[in-house]
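Two entries, shown back to back:
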Amino acid sequence: MTSIKRFQITFDCADPERVARFWCEVLGYVVPPPPEGFATWGAFDRSLPPERQGSDFACVDPSGAGPRLYFQRVPEGKVVKNRLHIDVRVGTGLVGEERVAALEAECARLVALGAVRERLLVADGFDESCLVMRDVEGNEFCLD
């Protein structure tokens, strides 16, 4: 029998700390404590060679249940649609106008954090409504 593996989700981005802090707010994640011997992540970052400073950042689910999110700086910008994206489940169990209202309320909160609303996909008889958005660096995600 195969055991369940722990995993992390990695984002390629231009500004790892900014994107990580955005997702902390979206998901209720937290920044873990800095490495031993450092009072802050900034102090740790300043101890690195200049080319490594600001090159990565991470956040974790405070309950320990969700995957670690890791953000790494890459030189190229986002060019095409993501092949993988996060669905933020805010409308689970809701249908119709009640579901759309929950999606819209969360959308407003996330837009205030820097997200961009793309479009509402209205229920079609097979799938419930969801709202397509972009994070602070343009990565697609859905409110579902």
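entry 2 starts here
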Amino acid sequence: MITKSYFRKVLLQYRMILDRVMYSQRNEQLCESVANFLERKAISKLHIFLPIQKNNEPDITSLLPAFWSGNIQVVVSKTDFMFKQMRHYLMEEQTALIENRKGIPEPVDAEEISIEDLDLIFVPLLLSDRNGFRVGYGGGYYDRLLKETKALKVGLSLSPPVDEILQTEDWDVPLDYLITPFKTYNYG
């Protein structure tokens, strides 16, 4: 059986060697897919992840002006590594960001908010399968967040899903949707 740790290692290496042109093309297509997806949803508050640039993560921050002009509140997180949890903050146009020790941009002097009324959470991942399960970086931060909310759980990936991740755990929370540059998958 191929383990999650093996997938993490291989997929992170794959992302690192992804050609800049191919990355840019796929990311642009992904942003178009995300915009089309959101047009069909009534969203007033959404949670996004800010990409780790060095890991070539999907980056939908080019859509932020459209979110704000559409009166969508944008929520981002700060990671508390000591307690293995995330705290959530309102991100506005003027919100300053600083990278944490893992290279994740985080808000500075932003208003902390509750996640109770989130409509949608965009979830980072390295890999997803056709059942909505995902492989992340292994810290469990998003698994804990996804258990706390009834918001739509939407993964963003530059690659299509694999058939099946065999090593799933009781605490894994499946996605409701996966958006890729090529197709949007509905797991609901």
